[in-house]
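Subject: mismatched residue count in predicted assembly?

I count 662 residues in my input, but I want to confirm that the predicted structure covers every chain. Input:
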Amino acid sequence: MPKLELQNLNKTYTPKVIPVKDISLDVDEGEFLTLLGPSGCGKSTLLRLIAGLEPPTRGNVVINGHDVSRIAPGKRNIAMVFQSYALYPHMTVYDNIAAGLRLRKMPSDEIRRRVEEVAQKLGLQNLMDRKPGQMSGGQRQRVALGRALVRQPDVFLLDEPLSNLDALLREQVRADLKQLFEKQQAPVVYVTHDQTEAMTLSTKVAVLYDGNLQQLASPQEIYMRPANQFVAGFVGSPQMNLLTLNCEGNNAVLGDFRIPLPNLPTPPSQIIMGIRPEDVHLVKPDDKLMIQGQIFLVENLGMQNLISVRVQGTEMRIRALLPANQRWEGEDVTLSIAPQAIHWFDIKTGDRVPLRDRDHRFHSHHPEQVA
Amino acid sequence: MTISQNQLSQEAATINWRKILLPISVFLVVVFFMGPVLWQVLTSFKVNSAISAVPAIYFPTPNQLTLEHYQSLFVRRPFTLYILNSALVSITSTLLALALGAPAAYALARLRLPGENIILAAVLIVTLFPAVLLFLGLLEVVRTTHLGNNYLALILPYAAINLPLTILVMRSFFQQLPKDLEDSAKVDGYNTIQMLIQIVLPMTLPALVTTGILTFIAAWNEFIFALTFITRESMKTIPVATAQLSGASVFEIPYGPIAAATVLGTLPLVVLVLLFQRKIVQGLTAGAVKG
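Triage response: the counts match. Full output below for your records.
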């Protein structure tokens, strides 16, 4: 059974440059793991460590129970799709796809059979004699995919394979990718900084920041219960409102308004409140938690309006996502916040403040294993 | 109406000027560059009386034309041998420079070497040193190593002198070669040697051809080393042999044969450059724009 395990991986270039600090995770058969993070978070380095293009400073890469940390990339039986596609410019499409198999001394009719199968799957049959320079970006991207698929490797590695495509094509290829890899048994590790790709493609997302694993969970879990302030701010678009609030007794103070804190053993002096713009609404008759403020910016996103509101009694701002057909009068609005949609984070560590009753309920609704 | 008509005629005038000036200036520039070359070609085909005629004959009549000078080069002198000598020395030193320079350039481009900048500066400084000053020292070296009248006495210095250029040009070419390609080759299962020969080398051809031709031209045209290190008649290269052409008496300068030898010596270079023209342009502009 194909399985990829990373054990305490660390990559240190110099004492100050440590792109990967200490990362352990597993990717099982049929799983699609996305490494998600901003530029410089170490996600590409981590992928290169798995591929064997960089040797780890510490820790192990284990594929199917074998420690491959010191083995050359070509002998790990992995396949990788590069951001630039990295097709060999002097070879035809057929040769590009067949190169890896030829090096493994596979009989030529077997190579032909496999290449044709992949070509058909990706719609490349008519392009087999072309060279990469004579193809469009989307076609090159498919050849790069074909080169990985034809190998039938133990692990697939994809390094931002969609980032060089234009927006329309990207959406289409994203859907194709999902279908393609759903049929594959081998674990997939996919690197991206695009949260939509991470959300739509993955069965599991690893959010990386500063060389550390911030959260490893299903896409739903990452979205519904971000483990810390970084994940909360990074995942979700438009970005979650993150406000640093003073506390008074069992309430957090937001301008002229009081927001009840969750049940905490010792009430802190300050806390970070997170609320997604889609969880802030125009007030309805039976809403309890309300804030008032002044709209200073309306951004039309087509499906929704994103309004930015200056909360009464403070300089703090909160953004709300309202349906496009919803109207409001004047600049002063009353917004309601669903108490159960608020995320609380510790001011010092940035970690999520556990809410016993509610988080338990969520647990039963969202089992960790989705696949 | 009158204003617009004036403007029209003015426009016509400026366009006419451009139409006249452009061909004229092109012609002048071409004549300026090609004049000496064309004069040599013309001289090589004219009979002796036409060469020395005053005023100069620019458009010789058919009976003033001859192939005699070319024939004399091969009949009275072993010019085939000179050409072969030149070819041997130039080709070998070019291949040597490429074989040593390209791997060095690859290492300098890809490995994070300690003191890389110092190495590069050293390489650059070699090119700043005038070859004429090296020549006296080299003469001593040739004498003590008994390499005089040996092709190696030319091949080694030619390769060495052109090595810095090869290294610098090839290094910048390797640097703009995407590293992903090499990574991809590694993941595909190529080992380092296979990767260099099957993946990197084919993509490097334009740069190799460009630097190779520059080295070849420099070696083919070199004069001082060839004059000093080789004294045996049968081993001389074309530039030396051409310079040493002499007439029947001390006072006769054989303009015709000299011109013919010059043309003959330049012809291989012209053919070479024309053959590889497209590759050279590719090599010189490689990485200039996103391809």
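The two ends of chain A are 16 Å apart (CA to CA). Marking this ticket as 'not a bug'.
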